[in-house]
Amino acid sequence: MIGFRFLPPAERVVIAPLLQSYAGEMRPLLRGSEPADGHAAAAMLCADPRTEVLLCERDGAPAGFAILFDLPEVVFARRCGMLDDLYVHPEHRRRGIARAMLDHLAGEGRRRRWSHLRWIVPAGDQDAIRLYEQVAERAGWLSFVIRLDAEASL
């Protein structure tokens, strides 16, 4: 059984092992830098009240997470959702969990009256892109970045 819940800051430490696994999978994109330890990343999330963390549990065990922000969208004077990270642990993949998390977030966004939910994805992540093209449309925006610390930026 799959369940979702938003984690209050004090409980975000439960995703430390998932954060560690996620960082390991992202390592090839890091240009030689070492990712943070999962516990250090969880501590940062525990200390940041602006961040929201959705936990996905499968049969009571942490299976994935989404990290997001509720932001102002000034063109329409509304709010929007910005999904920063979405991760499903490898042993829980191919069971519809990522799609279910996106559906859950879309429902939450409708409840909050967001104008949209947006996210970025690394261009080479073909599995994620295939899913995202099934549930969303490509935005008409390009993504740019100013790398302020090349050792700590994807």
Automatic annotation (TrEMBL):
Pfam families: Acetyltransf_1. The keyword Cell membrane does not apply. Its EC number is 2.3.-.-. GO terms for molecular function: acyltransferase activity. Residues 13-151 form the N-acetyltransferase domain. Transmembrane segments: none annotated. SUPFAM superfamilies: Acyl-CoA N-acyltransferases (Nat) (SSF55729). Keywords: Acyltransferase, Transferase. InterPro entries: Acyl_CoA_acyltransferase, Bact_Acetyltransf, GNAT_dom. This is GNAT family N-acetyltransferase.
